TrEMBL record:
One of the protein's GO biological processes: proteolysis
Family of this protein: Belongs to the peptidase S8 family.
InterPro entries reported for this sequence: Peptidase_S8/S53_dom, Peptidase_S8/S53_dom_sf, Peptidase_S8_Asp-AS, Peptidase_S8_His-AS, Peptidase_S8_Ser-AS, Peptidase_S8_subtilisin-like, Peptidase_S8_subtilisin-rel
Protein name: Serine protease
Sequence ranges assigned to domain Peptidase S8/S53 in this UniProt record: 275-596
PANTHER family for this protein: CEREVISIN-RELATED (PTHR43806:SF11), PEPTIDASE S8 (PTHR43806)
Length: 688
């Protein structure tokens, strides 16, 4: 983002009062709406800025010195703006420790920075209450929507009285006018009992010939309007489908993606085409009760491609990709976790022997009733490592191509339409070439290869996600605002194509926006799914965060598109995913979000399950804000310098995000900063 030219900065000089003497505090330093400012104080000793005490939005340089204290203050307001965007001015303190001869102490300046202001109003679209429609096809269409006669409004009470068979007050209506009104009704052969006084010069007229009545009545100069007495219907929205499995309330990602509407759509049938999703990972725990019936097992195409003798199960490549126990293993099963996101079964199952505290319903997977099955392929060993050669074999095998392992040839009996790789690494393009060639082979075979973009907290492309033809998936997490935000660990680079919920890194910045609780305590914003306890050797459930958890969200939705028949192959499935994604961050495709976060409800054409009107505000740097709307839909947001996408829209899929693809929306862009400190967007009136 371009910074404001230096001429827009301000020099703010503290009063020169001679050498510092403890205790001391400098005057308040108001940056106003500038990005930078200076503070200066005569001094003869040594000094240093207490960097740890600075607010997150304020940078001070230099950090130390001798003699006169001269500081440059730089405000990054984005680091201090609350999600509610309701803080007009940021305030913080700069503390300098100093030593002069035998004296030492601290001096503190209070620094303030004014925010930039965005105002506007979100208003509902005007609804047409009635319209005068001409003849011909338009009239026939109007009369055929379902009507029980006609409603007529006359231009005067006298004309209404004549129509009802009463005597018009003397001098109020000419004889010719009265004759016209009586003649019109006579030609319609309407008996007097078929007319009802609706008040306000209106009459309800019962007739089976609605079209003829409209034509005749609209030709009467005494008639103000004539409209069909249309049949209205109760407008009940479909209810979102909410699973009742024990830990489903912790699976916030599904709600964020609109699955309450998508699963309701599934209840109506139509998801009939079998789809295979290959999960190329650590293997899986086939004995996890929440995955029963969701997997192709040993002898059905499942495969362990690891050839190294130290791979953890000690038996080389074979048809049993169970994620094995090892003597010292205590961590969970990555492949089991990824698989559960796609295909964990709904409902209860039998109690687990020897584990009275274990859940008997667990979690749910995105596939629900759709005939989606996971084909486990083990390529990651118990140390969490995968060799490039093994990934090559796994991808090719998943797509239905023959591979040879330890002298034996294998061919997948269930070629995968979707291949999920929640793995990758920081290798160069040349080293990654064999994997990219395997991705190309799988793509030519018709498979959609979905790959985690990487958790490197940077901009380095990870492979195989960055391979041409792969669908690199970044992660988003909850923000407390209507729109989610980019997860900081998720790598950003040009090959990132889509985003999906990956959760928050609770080791760095735990958040609890999802509202779920476990054991009566708020649960952090991670992705909850099936797992395995290797210490107790029993099934369990666990949460993780990463692009590994985002990728299977995309794989699951791709499989559902194919199962419903919305799409038929790799290319149109990818096109549908990108076209219906929710644009986040900067407008259009960007390196952090790709084309946006996938939207299951929009992609699958699910029914509306809500109809709320609201606002979302997104900055080009990926932040999201949620200013409050008053009773009239007005908002005032105090924001940092940035370019913002502001959407007033309706939420039809119940995910709390307003104005997504296929939802009514009005979008504006506003650039705020020192040169443009206040913007009024006017009215945002959502339209389909």
């Amino acid at each position: 983002m371009k910074r404001v030219p230096a001429l827009l900065t301000v020099a703010l000089l503290a009063a020169a009062c001679g050498p510092l003497t403890p205790p001391a505090s400098g005057p308040t330093v108001p940056l106003g709406q500038a990005l930078t400012g200076q503070v200066s104080q005569p001094f003869g000793g040594t000094w240093a800025v207490e960097q740890k005490s600075l607010p997150a939005w304020l940078t001070v340089s230099p950090g130390s010195g001798t003699g006169r204290i001269g500081l440059t203050l730089t405000a990054d307001r984005a680091q201090g703006t609350p999600t509610a965007a309701d803080q007009r001015t940021l305030s913080g303190q700069v503390t300098v420790t100093w030593t002069e001869g035998t004296q030492s102490g601290k001096t503190t300046w209070t620094v303030t920075a004014d925010q930039y202001t965005l105002t506007g109003r979100v208003v509902d679209a005007a609804r047409v209450q009635g319209a005068d429609v001409g003849g011909g096809a338009a009239l026939r269409a109007q009369s055929q929507v379902g009507a029980r006669g006609v409603i007529v409004k006359y231009r005067s009470a006298a004309a209404q009285a004549v129509a009802l068979g009463r005597t018009a007050p003397a001098g109020t209506l000419s004889d010719a006018a009265q004759s016209t009104t009586r003649g019109t009704l006579a030609r319609l052969n309407v008996p007097r009992g078929a007319l009802d006084d609706l008040g306000g010069r209106r009459i309800r007229l019962e007739t089976p010939d609605v079209e003829g009545a409209l034509l005749a009545l609209r030709s009467d100069p005494n008639v103000e309007y004539a409209v069909p007495n249309a049949i209205l219907h109760a407008q009940a929205l479909a209810a979102p489908l909410v699973p009742t499995d024990q830990y489903a309330g912790l699976q916030w990602a599904y709600k964020l993606l609109g699955y309450g509407a998508a699963w309701r759509d599934m209840e109506a049938g139509g998801y009939t085409r079998p789809v295979t999703v290959a999960v190329v990972d650590t293997g899986v725990r086939f004995d996890h009760p929440d995955l029963q019936g969701a997997l192709y097992g040993p002898g059905e195409g499942a495969l362990d491609v690891l050839t190294s003798p130290s791979n953890g199960d000690g038996d080389g490549p074979d048809t049993d990709p169970t994620d094995p126990n090892t003597p010292t293993r205590s961590s969970g099963s990555h492949g089991t976790h990824v698989t559960g996101i796609i295909a964990a079964r709904w409902g209860s199952f039998a109690p687990i022997a020897g584990c009275p505290a274990c859940s008997t319903s667990g979690v749910v997977g995105a596939a629900y009733k759709a005939p989606v099955k996971v084909l486990p392929i083990r390529v990651i060993d118990t140390a969490g490592d995968a060799e490039v050669a093994d990934v090559v074999n796994a991808v090719r095998y998943a797509a239905g191509l023959e591979i040879t392992l330890a002298g034996r040839t294998y061919k997948n009996p269930h070629p995968a339409q979707v291949i999920n790789l929640s793995l990758g690494g920081d290798v160069d393009a040349k080293t990654a070439q064999p994997m990219c060639e395997a991705v190309a082979d799988a793509t030519r075979a018709g498979a959609l290869v979905v790959v985690a973009a990487g958790n490197g907290y940077g901009t380095t492309p990870y492979y195989p996600a960055a391979c041409e033809g792969a669908v690199a998936v970044g992660a988003v997490t909850l923000s407390g605002a209507s729109a989610p935000v980019h997860a900081p660990y998720s790598n950003s680079y040009p090959q990132v194509m889509l985003s999906a919920p990956g959760g928050a890194d609770i080791n760095r910045a735990p958040t609890f926006f999802n509202g779920g609780k476990l054991n009566d305590a708020p649960y952090p914003d991670e992705i909850f799914s099936t797992d395995w306890d290797y210490v107790k050797d029993q099934p369990m459930y666990q949460s993780y965060a990463g692009t590994s958890q985002a990728a299977p969200q995309v794989s699951a939705l791709a499989a559902l598109l194919l199962s419903k028949g919305v799409t038929q192959g790799r290319d149109d499935t990818l096109a549908r995913l990108t076209a219906t994604a929710t644009d986040l961050g900067a407008r259009g495709r960007d390196d952090a979000f790709g084309y946006g976060m996938i939207n299951a409800a929009a992609a699958l054409g699910a029914p509306a399950v809500s109809d709320a009107l609201g606002l979302r505000v997104q900055g080009s740097r990926g932040q999201a804000f949620q200013p409050a709307l008053d009773a009239l839909g007005r908002f005032t947001a105090y924001l940092p310098d940035d370019t913002f996408q502001v959407v007033g829209g309706r939420d039809r899929d119940g995910n709390g995000i307003y104005g997504e693809t296929s939802e009514p929306r009005a979008e504006r862009q506003a650039a705020l900063g020192p040169a443009n400190p206040q913007v009024d967007l006017g009215d945002l009136t959502p339209a389909p």
